[in-house]
Design goal:
alpha/beta; five-stranded parallel beta sheet; binds zinc ion
Length: 415
C-alpha cells in the first residue's frame, strides 16, 4: 500500500491519469474525496498522490528551499533505486520521483508533512499503541489489509491533535497532506471541524478523504471536495496480482479473483482464510453429497460443523454458498462449450464436464436462485446452519416433508 507511485496504481488508469494531470498542473484543491468499492486501491492512490505532492523534485519543494539540483543527488539509502536525474528546467513532473529525501520519507509514512488518520478501536489509553502497531504492520507488509471491528472509528482525540498541528506551517514541504481513510467513520462534530479546515482560505493543507460509503458523509463535506471515483478491479488483474505479488498458485488465484468482486482486499483476506480457500471449497462442494443421496441427518451434522467454523460463522457460510454458485456457473459455462481457460474450477474440469452433461441449464438456474435466497437469508436473522441445511436440501431438489427433518433443525426453523 505504501511507496507506490501514481504510474503504478493497479487497474485505475483513469484515476491515475487524472491525478498525474493535477500534479503536473501544480494547483491543488483543498480536499479530494476518493470514493468507490472497498479494497480497490483508494488508500494506496491517496498515498501515491500525497507522495507526488510532497516530492522535492515536483511541486512539493518549500518556497526558498535550497536548490537540491545544484549538486549531484545523494544515492538512495536502500541502494536499490538509482537517484533519478534532476528534472530538466521547465519540465513538469507528474509523479513522485521515488528517489528524493521527501519521497523516501513519505514511502514509509515518516514525512513530517504527511499525516494519516484511520479508524481505530479500543480504549482511549490504548489508542497510541494501537495506532503505532497498525502503522508498523502497514510498513512491514506490502500486502497489508486494514481490518477493523465494526465499532472502529476515527477518534476525536487524534483528530483534535492533528487540527491543532495544522495551525502551524508545514515542516519541510510547500504543503501538508492529510490522508483520511474511511472518512465515513467520524462523528458530527469532527465533520464540522474538518469542514472549517477545508474551507480556510489560503490553507496549506490538502486533505484526501477515502470512503467506500460516500452516502454516509455529510453533504457539506461531499460538496466541498473534488471527487475522484474508483471502479472495481477487473478479475484478470486481481488474478495476476495474486499470482505475481501474493505468490499464489494459479487455481487458487483464479478462484479468489472470481470471489473478490473486483476487490483486491477481499481476495487478500480470503487468501488468509482458514482452512485455505481451495480446501474450504472442496469441503463446501462435498456438503451437497449427503443432500443428493437423501441423507438429511448427515447434511444437518455437517452444516452445523460449518456454521461453527469460526466466530465469523456467517462469513464462512457466505463463502460456502459462493463456492456453490461459482461451481454452478462453471457447469453452465461447460454446457455452453466454454474452453478450459474460462472455468474457475479448472482443477476439477473433468468432473465439471461430466456433471454438466447430466444437468440442464434450467435446473442450474433454479439452483442458483435457491442459493441467492440462502445468501439473503444469511444476511437476515436466520441461523446460519439452518439456512445452509435448508438451502442445500433444496439445491439437491429434496423438499423435505414434515417429520423428515432432523428434530434439532426443525425446532430452530424460523424462516
Ligand atoms: Zn521525490
Amino acid at each position: 500500500m505504501l511507496g507506490v507511485s501514481l504510474s503504478q496504481l493497479l487497474g485505475q488508469d483513469e484515476v491515475s491519469a487524472f491525478l498525474k494531470g493535477v500534479v503536473a498542473g501544480g494547483r491543488f484543491a483543498n480536499a479530494y474525496l476518493f470514493h468507490g468499492p472497498a479494497g480497490v486501491g483508494k488508500c494506496t492512490a491517496a498515498f501515491a498522490f500525497a507522495r507526488a505532492m510532497l516530492c522535492e523534485r515536483g511541486s512539493g519543494a518549500a518556497p526558498g528551499a535550497p536548490d537540491l539540483f545544484a549538486t549531484a543527488s545523494p544515492p538512495a539509502k536502500s541502494g536499490k533505486r538509482a537517484p533519478a536525474p534532476p528534472a530538466a528546467a521547465g519540465a513538469e513532473r507528474d509523479d513522485a520521483c521515488g528517489a528524493c529525501a521527501a519521497c523516501q520519507k513519505s514511502a514509509t509514512l515518516l514525512h513530517p508533512d504527511l499525516r494519516f488518520l484511520f479508524p481505530v478501536s479500543g480504549e482511549e489509553k490504548d489508542l497510541e499503541s494501537n495506532v503505532i502497531e497498525t502503522l508498523e504492520a502497514l510498513r512491514a507488509d506490502p500486502l497489508f489489509v486494514f481490518k477493523y471491528p465494526k465499532a472502529a472509528s476515527i477518534r476525536l482525540s487524534i483528530t483534535r491533535e492533528l487540527l491543532r498541528e495544522l495551525g502551524y506551517k508545514p515542516f519541510e514541504a510547500a504543503r501538508r497532506v492529510v490522508v483520511v481513510r474511511d472518512a465515513d467513520r467520524m462523528r458530527e462534530d469532527q465533520y464540522s471541524a474538518l469542514l472549517k479546515s477545508i474551507e480556510e482560505p489560503g490553507a496549506s493543507t490538502v486533505w484526501i478523504l477515502t470512503t467506500a460509503r460516500i452516502a454516509r458523509l455529510p453533504a457539506t463535506i461531499r460538496s466541498r471536495c473534488q471527487r475522484v471515483r474508483f471502479a472495481p478491479l477487473a478479475e484478470p488483474l486481481v488474478r495476476e496480482f495474486l499470482m505475481k505479488r501474493a505468490e499464489l498458485r494459479e487455481p487458487e488465484a483464479r478462484m479468489l479473483a472470481a470471489l473478490s468482486s473486483g476487490s483486491l482486499a477481499r481476495a487478500l483476506v480470503l487468501r488468509d482464510a482458514k482452512p485455505p480457500a481451495l480446501e474450504l471449497r472442496d469441503q463446501a462442494l462435498a456438503l451437497l453429497e449427503p443432500a443428493l443421496r437423501g441423507d438429511p441427518a448427515t447434511l444437518w451434522k455437517t452444516s452445523q460443523g460449518f456454521a461453527r467454523f469460526s466466530s465469523g460463522g456467517r462469513e464462512t457460510l457466505r463463502l460456502v454458498i459462493e463456492f456453490h454458485e461459482l461451481w454452478l456457473r462453471d457447469l453452465l459455462r461447460a454446457r455452453y462449450g466454454a474452453p478450459r481457460e474460462d472455468l474457475v474450477h479448472r482443477d476439477r474440469e473433468a468432473e465439471i464436464r461430466r456433471l454438466s452433461a447430466s444437468v440442464d441449464a434450467t435446473e442450474i438456474r433454479r439452483r442458483l436462485l435457491v442459493l441467492e435466497e440462502v445468501l439473503r437469508a444469511i444476511e437476515g436473522n436466520v441461523a446460519p446452519d439452518v439456512a445452509l441445511f435448508s438451502g442445500l436440501s433444496r439445491v439437491a431438489g429434496a423438499r423435505l416433508g414434515e417429520g423428515e427433518w432432523p428434530r434439532a433443525a426443525a425446532a430452530r426453523w424460523d424462516y
